[in-house]
Design brief:
386 residues; four-stranded antiparallel β-sheet; 2 domains; 13 helices; alpha/beta; eight-stranded mixed β-sheet; Immunoglobulin-like; Rossmann fold
Length: 386
């Protein structure tokens, strides 16, 4: 199954184009599921049919689903209270009733990730179209599975989990604090769930479609989005320039400057696919079809971070990290154990080093043509002798 994640600046029309993309693919015969995390039914308004917590079959090949964050949060909290009942009783804590629970900030995004995982594991569709939040929130959301798994491993390392059979003995004899059994089980379950989401995002059949209006703000947003996505290893399937005004609109005085501005940005976005402005907010299948969105590109090359072996020539290994649009003064690298902390502008990622680089020391780095090249010199104390 192919997964297409759609995002863009707030107000760029990403939800409308997600609906149009899903409708177009379904019309071409692909069994398509479109997901959205919007609390208001913007997706249903665009499709011309209400959507909700239960997947809605709109056509024989198109299904729309807007998972209910409130219900998911209530179920998770109820399960947590059941598993932690002993601890809660010892603390004298009263349980929360489902009726008094409201979802915390971020619950909608977590619900969307879970729905994405469930839809991918079900494999009952050919195409999954995901209407993500605006780009800054979307990039944080896409980073969440990897970051949470890293936090879980730091808070409850695997070696401590392996020692849980010795917990009573260690607690009595050595005074080593060991978490309760339910915490191990909860951590393991979360790790499995997060790993499943991470696998969907890392799959070669997953890509991102960027939606933006051609203009100075859209140009800046697209540049930042490309950088953030590259740092996460997510390929851009296509850039869609939305709400493009027709050429003859330049004859209308108030719109002439806007048309000129759009043409300038479209020249810079040579690879972008323009989608015309309909003159009104698209509503229903006819309007979505009139948008003429591009078909889904099924041959998007993955974002790869290759390691070049130049030990024989220069005595180093070079790690090539694509960072399009990165600025040298906004780059920062920190080697910490077997990880590399990469900061590029407002984005940051902690990346495990490939095994061969763990036996090396950092020898320098350079940014060239949108690519960060980090040099590693073999550590004589760790490198195999020839």
């Amino acid at each position: 199954m192919r997964t297409l994640l759609i995002t863009g600046p707030g107000g760029s029309g990403r939800t409308t184009l997600a609906a149009a993309t899903a409708l177009s693919a379904a019309g071409a015969g692909a069994k398509t599921l479109v997901l959205s995390a919007d609390r208001t039914d913007t997706l249903g308004a665009a499709l011309g049919a209400p959507t909700g917590a239960v997947p809605t079959q709109l056509t024989p090949t198109l299904t729309a689903w807007r998972p209910d964050a409130s219900a998911g949060f209530r179920d998770d909290l109820a399960g947590f209270q059941d598993r932690a009942s002993t601890v809660l009783d010892l603390l004298g804590a009263s349980r929360l009733d489902p009726e008094e629970v409201t979802p915390l900030p971020g619950a909608g995004e977590l619900t969307l990730l879970r729905a994405l995982r469930d839809a991918a594991l079900a494999e009952s569709h050919d195409l999954l179209v995901v209407d993500l939040p605006p780009t800054p929130q979307a990039l944080g959301l896409l980073a969440l599975p990897e970051e949470l798994r890293r936090y879980l491993r730091r808070l409850l390392p695997p070696e401590r989990q392996a020692a849980r059979a010795l917990r009573p003995v260690l607690g009595r004899l050595a005074g080593v604090p060991m978490p309760a059994e339910w915490l191990y089980e909860t951590t393991a379950r979360w790790d499995v769930e997060l790993a499943a989401v991470q696998a969907v995002l890392a799959d070669r059949a997953t890509a991102v479609r960027l939606v933006a209006e051609p203009g100075p703000a859209g140009e800046d947003a697209v540049r930042d989005a490309r950088l953030g996505l590259a740092l996460r290893g997510l390929p851009v399937e296509r850039l869609v320039a939305n709400r493009v005004l027709p050429e003859d609109a330049a004859d209308a005085g108030p719109l002439a400057a806007l048309v000129t501005q759009q043409r300038k940005v479209l020249t810079a976005w040579a690879e972008a696919r323009p989608v015309a402005h309909l003159g009104h907010d698209p509503r229903g299948a006819d309007d979505l079809t009139a948008l003429a969105v591009p078909a889904v590109n099924t041959s998007v090359p993955p974002v790869e971070w290759p390691v070049a072996d130049r030990v024989a020539q220069d005595g180093v290994l070079v790690w090539h990290v694509p960072l399009p649009g990165a600025i040298r003064d906004e780059l920062d690298l920190v080697r910490r154990g077997d990880e590399l902390v990469v900061t590029a502008g407002p984005f940051r990622r902690i990346v495990p080093l490939p095994s061969v680089l763990r036996r090396c020391t950092v020898d320098g780095a350079a940014l060239r043509d949108g690519e960060l090249r980090v040099r590693f010199a073999p550590d004589p104390a760790l490198w195999p002798r020839t």
